[in-house]
Amino acid sequence: MAMAAGADETLWGHHPPPLIPTDNALTAARISLGQRLFHDPALSVNGSTSCATCHQPERHFTDGRPRAIGALGDEHPHNTPTLYNTAYNASFGWRDEGLTSLESQHRVPLFNQTPVEMGYEDEFAERLAADPTYVNAFAAAYGMPITTARIINALASYVRTLTPPETAFDRYLFYDEPLDATARNGMTLFFSERLGCGSCHAAFTLSGPIHHGDLRAEPVFHVTAVGGSGTAFRAPTLRAVQHTAPYMHDGSLATLEDVIRHYETTDAERVPEFVLSRTERSALAAFLRTL
Q1: Contact assessment for residue 71 and residue 50, using Cβ atoms and an 8 Å cutoff
Q2: Angle, nearest 10°, between helix axes 28-38 and 132-141?
Q3: 138 — phi, psi (to 5°)?
Q4: 277 CB-contact burial (10 Å; exposed 0-12 / middle 13-18 / buried 19+)
Q5: What's the CA gap between 58 and 92, in Å, rounded?
Q6: What are the backbone angles phi and psi of residue 229, rounded to the nearest 5°?
Q7: Domains, the chain, with CATH or none
């Protein structure tokens, strides 16, 4: 992967541009096409479901459910994570499935059968080819014909541009606007060795390992022990976390306070043992709400 020629670095605000595959250079035509495809239920088996059904922009690209629901009504085993800053991810999905690019990740919701998510089939590209506006859009973005690979590349191009809205934490970092005293105390706790939150939720994405510029990081997964699970999961971004409840891979924790209590009372990998006072717990939650 490398930075594609012509990519608009202003798309990522104060942050460095992400790595972009050289065979899927980022262009305005591809982003626009991907955004339209993202909202189009024609990519699903019964015309009922689009990417935006689960990743709803008005919900910060989540769905508010504990677990996602596929096109045929089947419950997915995992919670729908936000798509903010996924351009930087070193890995994709909750578990280690060897997915290291947005292009490879998009094949999962499109083709997964256990359970069906979108229920996409290659011949669905013909539905798009019957629409002259799609023909023109694909011709401008990738050339013809319309293929599954080009649909996936366009979706990845759009998702690559999704960044969170500016927050109080951003204004503190970039404009030196103060956080209130409670949130500042929570920030101190978050980045302390005593709690170790920042060791898993790191960098400007406050997530697991990321790629950007010339930096390439190895994916990391660890056991959170949520619901007694022994499976290792990727640490998701905490950006806009106050808006993306419920939490964890299975959506089983309803509030930020529940998440804090979980890590305070559960033996999870890479998390030191700690006990918080009521004041400290409130401060940590207040900091998380600034993100």
Answers
A1: no
A2: 140
A3: -70, -40
A4: exposed
A5: 22
A6: -70, 140
A7: 9-159 (1.10.760.10), 168-288 (1.10.760.10)
Rounded distance between C-alpha atoms, residue 113 and residue 90, angstroms: 25
For every residue of 110-149, DSSP letters joined together read HH-BTTBSS---GGGHHHHHT-HHHHHHHHHHT-SS--HH
Q: Are strands 232-233 and 222-223 parallel, antiparallel or unpaired?
A: antiparallel
- Is residue 203 packed enough to be buried (19+ CB in 10 Å), middle (13-18) or exposed (0-12)? middle
Give the helix ranges, DSSP H, for the chain: 28-38, 51-54, 102-111, 125-129, 132-141, 148-159, 168-175, 181-190, 197-200, 256-265, 278-288
Separation of CA 139 from chain center: 29
Residues 6+ apart with CB under 8 A from 39: 50, 51, 52
The 10s digit of each residue's pLDDT in 37-58 is 999 999 999 999 999 999 999 9
- Confidence (pTM): 0.95
Return the pLDDT at 13: 84
Residue whose C-alpha is closest to residue 274's, from 191, 195, 197: 195
- Gap between the Cα atoms of 49 and 118, Å rounded: 7
